[in-house]
Design goal:
Distance between the termini: 54 Å
Helix content: under 10%
Order of helices and strands: EEEEEEEEEEEEEEEE
Number of helices: 0
Shape: elongated
Radius of gyration: 19 Å
Strand content: 15-25%
Number of strands: 16
Amino acid sequence: TPFWEIDEEGNSVFNANIISNTYENGKGVITFDSDVTSIGYGAFARRTNLKSIIIPNSVTVIGDSAFAGCESLASITIPESVTSIGSSVFYCCYSLTSVTIPNSVVEIESYAFGECISLPIEDNVRYADTYAVEVIDDTLTTYSLKEGTRLVNAGLFRFCENLTSVILPESLTCIGKEMFSNCSNLENVVIPNSVTEIGDHAFYGCSSLASVTIPENVTSIGTQAF
């Protein structure tokens, strides 16, 4: 059985062949005849019983929807070799509570962690695309983004209706599109001097926000930002 991925045109691309598929200590072990360098489109999608997986250091790319719908997947460690995480990779992985993302990752595409309800925000990660990570928590009232966070993807806190206060680190350079959209109880936010851009609809619908000081370094304020 070949290990395969599907390219954008829907064609299969063979990377390596499975030479054994066994169980050791209750875990499945798949052995290939050569190094696997990428996990392709939908490779493990909708494997609802999959609870954990070890990604080898030879992998550099995790493709679109690779683990989408793996509802029992609780934790995953991404090796330093990975530089890109594709769109919807962990979409609807409802049990995912722990992800280790190395500094080697420079691109996380849209909805990569969409609907991952309990996933904490990691240190030093550049969330690069629309809705790559969303905080879906109706009970969240305060939040402090970790120092080292530089760019935050669009819609990170949107619809966190009970969020009243957030602390942004001095490392942050951009408040992304819809970052606090419809956070109707948000009362307090201090934009750090490091921020140069406020994206479209960043504070749209923040009806409890009474005042905001915009730093001198901000050069761009998006459509309906407030």
